[in-house]
Amino acid sequence: MNAPTPRRLVALLALAGALSASLPAIAAPEVQQGAVSTANGQLAIRQEKFTLPNGFEVILVQDHRLPLVAFNLWVHAGPRDEAKGQTGFAHLFEHLVFAGSRHIPRGEFDKYIDAAGGTDANGSTNFDRTNYFFTLPSNQLEKGLWLKADMLGWMIDEVDSVSLANQQDVVRNERRQSVENQPYGIVEEALYQALYPEGHPYRAVVIGSHADIQSIKLADVKAFARTYYRPNNATLVLAGDFDAKEAKALVQKYFGTMKPGPKPPEVKVATPQITKERRLVVKDRIELQRVNIAWHTPAMFAAGDAELDIAAHVLGGGKASRLYGLLVRDKQVAQSVSVSQGSQSLSSVFNIEVVARPGASLDDIEALVDAEIAKLAATPPTAAEIAQARAVIETELLQRMEKVATLADLVNHYNQMAGDPGFVGKDLARYAALTPPGVSGAVAQWLKKDARVVAQALPGEQVLAAEVPTPPMPTKAAKGERESLNGHEAWRLKPPAAAVPKPLTLPAAQSFTLANGLTVIHSPKAGLPLVSASLVVRAGQGANPADKPGLASFVAAMLPEGTTTRSAQQIAETAAALGATLTASPGAEEARVQFSGRKASAREGLALLADVALNPAFAAPEVERVRAQMLAALAQVREEPAALAQAVGNRVTYGEGHPLAVHALGTEAGLKAVDASALRAFWQAHYRPDNAALVVAGDLTEAELRALVEPLFGAWQGQGAAPARQPLPPARPIAARTVLVDKPGAPQTALAVVAPGPFAGAPDTAALKVMNAALGGLFTSRINTQLREVKGYSYGVFSGFSMGRERGQFAVQGSVRTDVTGPALADLWKEINGMRAKPMGAAELNRVRNAQLLSLPGLFDTNGAVVAGYAGNWSSGQPLSTITELPGKYAAVTSAAALKAAQQHLLPQQLIVVAVGDKAKVQPQLQKLGRKPELRDAEGLTVK
């Protein structure tokens, strides 16, 4: 398992603006265990809604497919409810909710989630709401309600000047990481400021400005809580394996005594009118230019919203779309195209985003886009285009229902935005009713040239607002800072005990082998009519010849770009018509060709997968197009500080000449050296049935799978004798060092602290994972707690071990504020040395061990997760039983075993620090630590 990403991510757009779809009859058997019904061809979600006397809404969605319960709390407040001069307030408040409560001390909330085996624990803010969610094993129903109730009713009791200052630092670090130090981050902010006038609640990005975040006072926080964080302004969805009668009684127990607040003020804001095109140019630290063209469009579920949703798919909804075909495939002036109808409650935004290829003109791209919009406005889309859009959206909706976590959020979304938690049928009916002329008419009405904003992003120096100093962190709160909205109830101080757990089982898999040597791994999963599959081939980066780094990635990229019987456009159209996704991706040791879609499309989807993997054309025009895309993608790596830090770390760790030293995309010289014959030779040598496995999970029996697989893959034969397998050379033994890559003006330093690590199958793997969970793998880990929660240096810093068949790496990754790069590294070293110094105490061991053990069912709760697990398992050479044996191995980990793993695998003398940041500010800090940094460029080469 990889280290988790920082938890409280900002969601700028609504959850399901693009969820709606038409619903042709869904031919799938109804599964009574699940909450999703397909009776009579109508998609529906079984749910029950009730309201407590204090106004608290509760929606129960019983789904007994897995022993899990999702707890999804929506507070009906977001930036739309912020006061003037307080941008980012709702999002800052989201952070404060996790800081502690009257009955749960600061820092303990997430620890309870870990110890209970929680997954999907997070919160997010969009313009219209703030949500808080986690999923627990079903025997922890009462504990989940205890936690959620204290978050809503008693968090304000513990908010003081210390906790407020800490979270202001964290949120400002998040802004630096996700907006200012992220390619195009400031461009999106400028776009919204041009779309909306001063005073409109959607004008600022959700995260707000440094000045506004820092200006928020404790009194503001209390006032916001009194108005919005009350039971009559919140809705809880429980989705999963529980008894409704028991759940109702527990909801009343934990939420019933909360006092309702005043009715929040109604937000009435007119949609702003743009009557003359607004144009802006934004300079950013980017390699590739980008253009955004955006319009105000009808609010969510209003007339025209569905038509523009379909129009977005027709124009830029994937590789089969018009603009992708025109700009990326035909004219080859764009690196990527995306189009969306971002639906919100007050006003939606239709956004066309095109990243240009090097040397392409944004003006020329804009002219091509304009012509395509005019064409769609004048001539209705074809029936096939609308059918493709509907199929894609319907599949995406079904996939959201696969996890109880996303199912719960979908129900909450419909409840707030449509006033009906069972709105899914009506939502889909909008799409069944629309017509091609209706789509064309909506485009003509709303996407006019004089009613839009055009933002061009060009390479250059950023222009940011004046620096807002970070005040010293207060060490102690003043008397009288805290207050309560609800009375203290002493019984809440004691966490409720868990009920008797259900047996912990993981999805098992069986395998069989075709006569040609292809391994087929199958994990059946009845429920929703969905199937996922991955053809895994041991043909990754490690197989690249020395003179052609990037060849494996090039071959994988070419697979969906044409076969002997289908063009790239035909492949894309076939996948879209199925409502399926088809992707090919390279890895360090393997490549994967993946399909995901409805059971009804499994036959055609697997046939398409087989065609692209077994019959690639490697046509010369497509080779040149993909080469240009990969060269541009290499430039994009240089834009992204975190990716750049990891790439440079690999180069230093493995050393020149090692296949894993350069980026998986290769080098400019290497890519230019590849031709069609080299691509075909690599494919013939490595894409063989005896060097591959097909992994399938979902609503297919073994008999059904065999009937599909044998005709499609049975005749596959390798080209000649299998090549002699060359093992990867080891990472070279190295001494600790510090590498600095200059990124002038960067507001944060991206860090990658890396070293060689153990391979898959290491006997102490379970102990290693438990140890790492305590060190840096969990949100509550020592590293993240110290650097984020205690010091406020970072939005999040995490560690993890990646373990392959012949490679292994330990890495700590995250970004810290530029001016505290040195202190952050000093703290990091203290935590690593502390992990090696003495065994964990019983409480910490039990928490982090349970976080690995009890969370396992929640980590294998979708077809895609099961496929990924078994595909990685096969690629790394492990037996099928490795996954189902995980519970026993985790349960057996002791503190002594974890300490031994730390002492054997956390070796400070091997750790390489890569810092990507402002040299003028960072280098003196590194030197103060006694580390004279090596200077390297964005390619990872030494600067002389």
CATH class label of the largest domain: Alpha Beta
Distance between the termini: 39 Å
Largest sheet: 6 strands, mixed
Please compute the radius of gyration using only Cα atoms.
27 Å
Give the integer mean of the pLDDT values.
93
Strand content: 15-25%
CATH level-four homologous superfamily name of the largest domain: Metalloenzyme, LuxS/M16 peptidase-like
Task: Tell me about this structure.
- The protein has 944 residues and is of the alpha+beta class.
- The chain has 4 domains: 47-265, 2-Layer Sandwich (Cytochrome Bc1 Complex, Chain A, domain 1); 278-402 and 414-459, Cytochrome Bc1 Complex, Chain A, domain 1 (2-Layer Sandwich); 510-713, Cytochrome Bc1 Complex, Chain A, domain 1 (2-Layer Sandwich); 737-936, Metalloenzyme, LuxS/M16 peptidase-like (Cytochrome Bc1 Complex, Chain A, domain 1).
- Helices cover 40% and strands 18% of the residues.
- The chain is built from 33 helices and 25 strands.
- The strands form 5 sheets. It has a 6-stranded mixed sheet, sandwiched between helices.
- A hairpin with a 5-residue loop joins strand 11 and strand 12 (348-356).
- Helix 1 packs across helix 4 and helix 10 packs antiparallel against helix 11 (362-378).
- The two termini are 39 Å apart.
- The relative contact order is 0.12.
